[in-house]
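Students often ask what a 'structure token' actually looks like in practice. Rather than answer in the abstract, let us consider Type II toxin-antitoxin system HicB family antitoxin, a protein of 70 residues. Its sequence is given first.
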Amino acid sequence: MLIRYELVIYWSEEDSAFIVEVPELPGCKADGQTYQEAVSNVEVIIQEWIDTAQELGRSIPSPKGRLMYA
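Now compare that with the structural description of the same chain:
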């Protein structure tokens, strides 16, 4: 799967895990013990988010690319 949505990845001390959020898909986030695991997990969650939205007849936002700036 080719991810075109912006991913926000950070370490959470509270969860002792990397957290990945997808700002363009409300509520879409995943975690993992490593950076790579978190990204791999969010790829699955993004597809599930899209599949669920399609099943419910909801619109799926088009990826806009970079949303945030450092």
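One point worth highlighting: The chain has a mean pLDDT of 92. Ask yourself how you might have guessed this from the sequence alone, and why that guess would often be unreliable.
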